């Protein structure tokens, strides 16, 4: 797996396919492979797909200090400069949307088009604050941490399509790692509202109507803060990339393949 030095980190990333760069940025706790790996094949016929792990995930290593959106954006920018072959299309999910928006705002030279999925722009929402505080508070009980995270990541309808065995597997894979806890701490602090007017790239914002992690109203606020951005909603829980993969892929493909 390739590695690039960016800021205080050694950032690992995966690269597949050929063509203009398409970079996917993961969210809290789960790295790029766990978030995006099942979708890569849908884009590699026309794009070089790049999956970086920012600090707290995968084999990426840093000093273990407090994270900021700017610090993680610097790591993603380092990967784009190393492997992106010019301005890339940048797709973020959840915390990855916050990071991707920060990249687009601070390094507009690196981003051709921007897709922000299930993201938010500020921490001053009582639901979001209580959700993240409760999740972080279960760190001493791995089972409770996994169950709370899973319960709010997916819609009831989707969980019932999986059945108990698969749901229990997801719960066991959702652990209170040091990286996940650092991400949750950032979720409680991050505020990128002042950066949004600086985004120049054509932007698509995607909200999830059944999202119990990042309420869809917060995603709509993110859209409203980016002048000229487009908006779409999918009938899904938070982790839309698993609940509605075909619909999500179609939205992204249609947007990034525009002339």
From TrEMBL:
Regions crossing the membrane: none
Gene Ontology BP annotations: acylglycerol catabolic process
Full protein name: Alpha/beta hydrolase
Gene Ontology CC, one term: membrane
Key words, A-Z: Hydrolase
Domain AB hydrolase-1 as annotated: residue spans: 22-250
GO molecular function: monoacylglycerol lipase activity
InterPro entries assigned to the protein according to its UniProt record, in alphabetical order: AB_hydrolase_1, AB_hydrolase_fold, AB_hydrolase_sf
Signal peptide (UniProt feature, chain positions): none
Species name: Peterkaempfera bronchialis
PANTHER family in the cross-refs: MONOACYLGLYCEROL LIPASE, MONOACYLGLYCEROL LIPASE ABHD6
